[in-house]
């Protein structure tokens, strides 16, 4: 059942895509039909909702007000549908989970596999986002649960579970550094390094540690993508400063060794499972949260 008028559906699509053409492609509707309904709506409200610009469609002040209301209506309808699903029991439904790319190879595949085994009728929609955008996206109503790294602002969030990962150096299993259970930065600096670059969050941490230790690393390469860095490590180019989360899969397979850094002030990477404090979670969302919490509770090293 679709309770919203065609005008509202078309309005939301145009506002989201900032283009009638892109909205038409998304909805598989003729652009002329979308434009006609938008014009009828503006006539009914007696105010323009969009500015027609050469670059596309931009919401007016009135359009911004309607867009905010419409998104709340959609969110309320989603909550209602989830409550109705709860009355039917956890046999079907869907959950939107936001997560950073770092989890694509570790926790998320196991979560999906467990859900398919225990509740095959539940669809898990995984949306990979830039870690910095995950919390704002969740609080805007575009997700039910989120996995976020080092959340800076948790006032409006409920933290279901936290998990910390040590920082250290990844290297080939046969590398001399791999013989150490842990090492100090000065020991690692004796070897060629693959330096993490922005926008990787570890780039800032690495720079801070190097400056504090007055270390002058031997740079073998620089990269701003974790998978590229791991590929360079396995190719024997050098060692690299990463978190255990980044290389957990490779360490478990024996492709990479990980040596935690020693130091009383050594930071850790924190992974948090969170949800919006103001939102009522459905039974199926609670179920997904419980299973994800169980996965996070397993030993990671």
UniProtKB/TrEMBL annotation:
Record's keyword annotation contains Ligase: no
Instruction: Please provide the record's keywords in A-Z order.
Output: DNA-binding, Transcription, Transcription regulation
Query: What Gene Ontology terms describe what this protein does at the molecular function level?
Result: DNA binding; DNA-binding transcription factor activity
Its taxonomic path starts at:
Bacteria, Pseudomonadati, Pseudomonadota, Alphaproteobacteria, Acetobacterales
Q: Name one GO cellular component term.
A: cytosol
- Please report which protein family the annotation says this sequence is part of: Belongs to the LysR transcriptional regulatory family.
Q: What is this protein called?
A: DNA-binding transcriptional regulator CynR
Q: What PROSITE patterns does the record point to?
A: HTH_LYSR
Locate the HTH lysR-type domain: which residues?
A: 8-60
Q: Which residues cross the membrane?
A: none
UniProt cross-references to InterPro entries, sorted A to Z:
HTH-type_LysR_regulators, LysR_HTH_N, LysR_subst-bd, WH-like_DNA-bd_sf, WH_DNA-bd_sf
């Amino acid at each position: 059942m679709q309770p919203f008028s065609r005008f509202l559906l078309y309005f939301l699509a145009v506002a989201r895509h900032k283009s009638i053409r892109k909205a038409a492609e998304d909805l598989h509707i003729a652009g002329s039909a979308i434009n006609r309904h938008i014009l009828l709506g503006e006539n009914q409200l007696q105010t323009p909702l969009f500015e027609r610009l050469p670059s596309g469609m931009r919401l007016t002040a009135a359009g911004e007000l309607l867009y905010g209301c419409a998104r709340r209506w959609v969110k309320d309808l989603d909550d209602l549908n989830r409550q109705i699903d709860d009355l039917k029991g956890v046999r079907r439904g869907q959950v939107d989970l936001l997560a950073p790319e770092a989890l694509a190879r570790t926790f998320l595949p196991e979560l999906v596999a467990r859900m398919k085994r225990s509740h095959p009728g539940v669809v898990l929609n995984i949306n990979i986002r830039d870690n910095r955008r995950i919390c704002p996206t969740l609080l805007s109503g575009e997700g039910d649960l989120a996995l976020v790294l080092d959340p800076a602002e948790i006032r409006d969030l409920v933290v279901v579970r936290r998990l910390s990962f040590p920082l250290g150096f990844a290297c080939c299993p046969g590398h001399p550094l791999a013989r150490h259970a842990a090492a100090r930065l000065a020991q690692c600096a004796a070897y060629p390094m693959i330096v993490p670059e922005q926008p990787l969050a570890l780039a800032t941490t690495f720079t801070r540690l190097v400056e504090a230790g007055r270390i002058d690393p031997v740079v073998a390469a620089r990269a701003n993508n974790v998978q590229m860095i791991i590929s360079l490590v396995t190719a024997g180019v050098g060692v690299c400063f990463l978190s255990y989360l980044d290389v957990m899969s490779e360490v478990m397979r024996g492709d990479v060794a990980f040596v935690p850094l020693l130091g009383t002030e050594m930071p850790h990477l924190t992974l948090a499972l969170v949800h919006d404090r103001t939102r009522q979670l459905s039974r199926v969302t609670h179920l997904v949260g419980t299973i994800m919490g169980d996965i996070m509770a397993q030993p990671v090293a």
